[in-house]
Design goal:
The complex is a heterodimer of chains A (299) and B (647). With 299 residues, chain A is of the alpha/beta class. Chain A folds into two domains: 2-202, Rossmann fold (3-Layer(aba) Sandwich); 213-297, Alpha-Beta Plaits. Chain A contains twelve helices and 14 strands. Chain A has helices at residues 40-47, 69-72, 90-100, 106-116, 129-142, 159-176, 187-190, 211-217, 231-236, 257-265, 279-289, 294-297, and strands spanning 2-11, 14-24, 29-33, 55-60, 63-64, 75-78, 147-151, 179-184, 196-201, 204-210, 218-224, 238-245, 248-254, 271-276. In chain A, strands 6-7-8-3-9-10 form a six-stranded mixed sheet, sandwiched between helices. A four-stranded antiparallel sheet of chain A has the order 2-1-4-5, with helices on one face. A four-stranded antiparallel sheet of chain A has the order 12-13-11-14, sandwiched between helices. In chain A, helix 4 (106-116) packs antiparallel against helix 5 (129-142). Chain A is elongated and about 75 Å long. The two termini of chain A are 30 Å apart. With 647 residues, chain B is α+β, with helices and mostly antiparallel strands. Chain B has five domains: 3-188 and 223-260, no CATH class; 285-348, no CATH class; 364-464, no CATH class; 467-552, no CATH class; 560-646, no CATH class. Chain B is globular, with a radius of gyration of 33 Å. The N and C termini of chain B lie far apart (109 Å). Classes of the chains: A alpha/beta (299), B alpha+beta (647). Chains A and B meet through helix 2, strand 6 and helix 3 of A and helix 1 and helix 3 of B.
Chain lengths: 299, 647
Amino acid sequence: MIKVEEVTKRFEKDLVLKELNLNINKGSIYGLLGSNGAGKTTLLKIISGIIKANSGKVTIEDKLIFENALLKDKLIFIPDTPYFFSHYTVNQLADFYKNTYSSWNQNRFQQLGKIFKLDPRKKVHRFSKGMQRQVAFWLAFSTMPEVLILDEPFDGLDPVIRKKVKGLIIQDVAEREMTVLISSHNLREVEDICDYIGILHNGGFVLEKDLDDLKSDVHKIQIAFNGDPPEKLIESLNIVHQEKRGSVNIWIVKGDYADVDQEIRSYQPILKDILPLTLEEIFIYEMEGVGYAIENVLV
Amino acid sequence: MRLKMSWFNKEIAIQNFRSVGWISIAYFLLLLFTLPLSILMMLTGEDDNFANYYDDLISFNIEFQFMMLMIVPLLIGLFIFRYIQVKPMADFMHSLPIKRLRLFDHHFWMGYLLLFLPVILNAFFLVLLYFFSNHQGLIELKDIGDWLLVYFMYGSLIYTVTVFIGFITGISVVQAILTIVMLLFPTGIIVLIYSNLDLLLYGFSQAYAWDIRTSALSPITDMLDYYYYEVSWLRLIPYVLLCVIFYLLSKFLYLKRPIEAASQALAFPQLKPIFKFGVTFCFMLLGGMYFAEVQGQVGWIIFGYIIFAILGYFLSEMILQKNWRVWNAWRGFFTYAGLTTIILLIIVFDIFGYETKIPTGEEIEGVYVSEDGYSYFEENQFREDNKLTSKRSIEQVRKLHEALINDKQNQTINPNYHPDSKNIYLIYYLEDGSEVVREYFIQHSQQYNELLKPLFETQEYKEIQEPWMSLEKEKVDSISLNSPFISMELSDPIKMEAFMQKIKEDYQKRSYEEMQYRENNIYYAEFQINDEYYHANFSDQDEETITWIKENFPDFSLAAEDLLHLVILSENHSEEILWELDNWKEGTDYWILEETGHIETVLEANQSIDWEDNYTVGVYDKVNNGYLYTFQVNKEDMPALILEKMK
């Protein structure tokens, strides 16, 4: 649905994105990870049609997004600090959105009001930072967008609200096949809701993965043999990382669980334990594989 | 399509009103108080004369009106397009499903409406006042039209230029400053270039260059010149054209503008060198002008050029980088310095031969000469009509010009003015229709007497200098003769003709020095032709004329008996003392002569035209019991009898 092809963006002399490609399917939630300055916000603004890439193209449903009012009508971008016209109340802002977006749903706006429990007659600038962010979500969900782009959306939200918002996102994705792109510098924040993850570093993707594949594909194996582990086994397994503690070897192995299990059994180890990895561990090892230390790329 | 997708977005209009509506409302109230209300107060007041105080509506509190006229369009232009300068707002507005050009038109025309609604409403009130007041002399419908026109012209241009500049920069403060600079630029740069050429090129006539009414090139200076022109609908044309151009340019730039340029000094990096070198160049010229005005020595002027260029360069660098620490950006400055030095050298070494150019005799159709420099009151046509065309005069001018060129070394930029200093101003009208204009300052014209005398003593020059010299006797309706005490009419054609004959002869006889320095021209003749009057001054030294008058009108001329006394001042006293004898200070050297015989003797002494070793003689008459005129007598020429008296 969202297609980014060979996008390059410079801010004067600084190269922010270089020949970047990205593909997001309809109805999926894509997590864009990267440390500060990796180019996440720039990429999101380009996909939202706010700024223009120096080269390459961004399409949504095969149409170019830049200066395309019809497409933007179905897309909502919430920046890391949401912007509101000064001295507007939530109701006034709702009127603005109602007038500007064709898919505005007044019923939903009223229903969501009950969930967020904020007074719509109050000026938004009177609200705290976290409450302002809730207002941004409130308005965004009420416009029933087909594409929702969120820049660091969970910063400053308390766990209860965070859960609520995540629930709303998942609900819309499930019910209306909304497509969501979320950026974050924190993996733990998005791992429970995203089904795709891309790690951006220095203007390019270091890694792009389907999370379901990832989790079932990488395994942590604790294994011990009489003497050294057989060379043949080591060669046949795709080991991305290995350590030794006493006589116990710890391997991180990529591959289908059943295949790996069977292969190991055939060598009759004294001790064998295949464990799932946390997402963070997977990333640490994956990044090692492509030559990055994760702490340089993610916080 | 649904209403939502139509051109007009009600909510954006509301947002526009919330952001600039306050300016509009304040503007409306200020205008209301400045015009309709104050006129209403005058109409209901006691003073019935007020209609005479004001010619038009702009004159009411003119300074305040002009201030509003400049500031309000600027403010509205700044605030209505504020959304492209504030990053979060720019991102938000451009994430909306509205195309840029639609956003632009929406904001532009809302701003325009809010700018002119107050003006139109007030004009409407003025029209009501016009119809309901009995004193219809105070406001005319035409005045209201003119007033609207002035507001429309300047307001529209300042507003569109503000908007245009907004798309070049990403900072509102820079937008405001650049707008003002841009509005002043056409006039300012010409002032700077001309005043610097004046420094660098010997003979360059800065004043002549002004003649194209430079101030009209910039709306701000044009507005301040309001008194000098008639409001006319024709003047609207260039303004409307410029507005359309800036409107279209703004749209064009908006399409090209990166939204992330918000909070950058310049939105288009391509403009940076232009901005940087432009600022540096203007500062350099300003520095040259400043030091020339204040100090005037070549060394200081060069110093001014260098220091101000450096200042301008780093200032622009600071604005662009938004940082004080720009000292490592030297390289660009050397490029600039190199280029400028070449340009300056071309001018200083006069590669194009500007300074030494004297048109040849055959090329010249005529030449206009003035010894008082350029006059703003003269029309170009007047100068052309009064050019010298005889071969002799032209040759004489060329000789003078050559001498002036050879005298270049003795010129200083800020010369001292002496009583005999002169500004020689030349226009050669060439056969091919072009003009060569030069202006030279002569500190002591006496050094040039040899060249000036033959030129200014020609009949041709005298006739040009005094318009009455070329009057035809038959056309003159009447002549009046005036002395300090008496005025009489000549209407007899024979006498009129005789008088004109005499006074013309006397004028032809006057020497160059007399034309310059005679101060006792206490009589004048006035020639009337239809409704035009021509003045001719003369004195007792115009013997033919005086003799003729004495024969025909014995009462006319001033005799020694008519005088109260003479006051002779020694050389070091200011003449001003003569005008206020009552405040005479103790200890000054002066002598009062009261005897008719003595007075006659002094009056007959040779009058001096030198400026040294003179006595100043003040002449006072009995009838008015007051000061008439002064003249100078050289110490050596003072009759012994009087010197004796003065001891």
